Amino acid sequence: MGRPEFDRKTAYIKKGEVWFDDGREEALVSYIKSHPHADSFQNKPHIILSVIDEFARTKDFMMTVGQYKGAVVTDLIAKERPQTIVEMGGYTGYSALLFGSALRDAWNGVEGAKPRYYSLEMSEKFAGIIRELVKLAGLDHVVTVVTGKAEDGLRELREDFKLETADMFFIDHYKPAYVGDLQRAEDLGLVRKGTWVVADNVVLPGAPGYLEYVRGTAKGEGIRKHVYESRLEESWEPTGEEDGLEVSKCIEVR
Ligand SMILES: C[S@@+](CC[C@H](N)C(=O)[O-])C[C@H]1O[C@@H](n2cnc3c(N)ncnc32)[C@H](O)[C@@H]1O
């Protein structure tokens, strides 16, 4: 497809030396609640997303997936119609709102469908903000937030939520943990033939070990059982810097 044009009018403020957990997340929640149009936000995930974008353009940088890379994932959700998605790294809920609503819409009106989006977030404070925004967006019947490190959250999904497999993963947490946590999901049986795995920030700041792993499986490298077909989707950080998503599909479990 190639990289679409970046519209400068949408650009977030550039990341400073400190870029999260310095009070800006609480400021975002206050900004949403005290917004002049706050009365119209209930059950409107896309309006809440546009307000998060507005905050990040005008007040403070936010480390969200943003609209450009976000569109790559929502297109994939609409096309492939996963029923269960697991994200690692939820922050303040931008991806949970965007992908949770795409998931709900993909199954709208289908009898018996139970679309589920699990957001695994290590920070209790951020997990609380995701829950609050998910409720405001009217997505609490679709999105479940699991607080804790992804490695523990994955085990919890398997053991407590009795999840057998997931149809899609969105990996967007701690770059050095991408490989280990994907392999943990594989070992728990959560990755089946046909599961999609989308990893963020593989260009900026980059995740070379992760790319080596998913791309290497197709060449028969390593002793792992899962084999992926993998491609880079070039896109943009919401600041306008070049980034990309690695989009992989598990094509075999040996
Ligand atoms: C880049 S942000 C996620 C952005 C989010 N997906 C969005 O689009 O708005 C990364 C998040 O991962 C969380 N995180 C870091 N290490 C983690 C881990 N091991 N397990 C779960 N969450 C983790 C951080 O607290 C942070 O909220």
Automatic annotation (TrEMBL):
<keyword id="KW-0489">Methyltransferase</keyword>
<dbReference type="GO" id="GO:0006584">
    <property type="term" value="P:catecholamine metabolic process"/>
</dbReference>
<dbReference type="InterPro" id="IPR002935">
    <property type="entry name" value="SAM_O-MeTrfase"/>
</dbReference>
<dbReference type="GO" id="GO:0008171">
    <property type="term" value="F:O-methyltransferase activity"/>
</dbReference>
<keyword id="KW-0128">Catecholamine metabolism</keyword>
<keyword id="KW-0808">Transferase</keyword>
<protein>
    <recommendedName>
        <fullName>catechol O-methyltransferase</fullName>
        <ecNumber>2.1.1.6</ecNumber>
    </recommendedName>
</protein>
<dbReference type="GO" id="GO:0032259">
    <property type="term" value="P:methylation"/>
</dbReference>
<keyword id="KW-0949">S-adenosyl-L-methionine</keyword>
<dbReference type="InterPro" id="IPR029063">
    <property type="entry name" value="SAM-dependent_MTases_sf"/>
</dbReference>
<comment type="similarity">
    <text>Belongs to the class I-like SAM-binding methyltransferase superfamily. Cation-dependent O-methyltransferase family.</text>
</comment>
<dbReference type="Pfam" id="PF01596">
    <property type="entry name" value="Methyltransf_3"/>
</dbReference>
